[in-house]
Amino acid sequence: MCVNLKGAKYHLMTVTAGLPAPIPENMSRVFEHAMEFGMCLPEICTKEDAASLTQVKDPVHNPLGAQFGPLFMPLLNQPGLQVTNPDSKSKDYILPPRPGCWVAVALVAGKLRP
Question: Could you tell me if residue 1 is inside a domain?
Answer without folding.
Answer: no
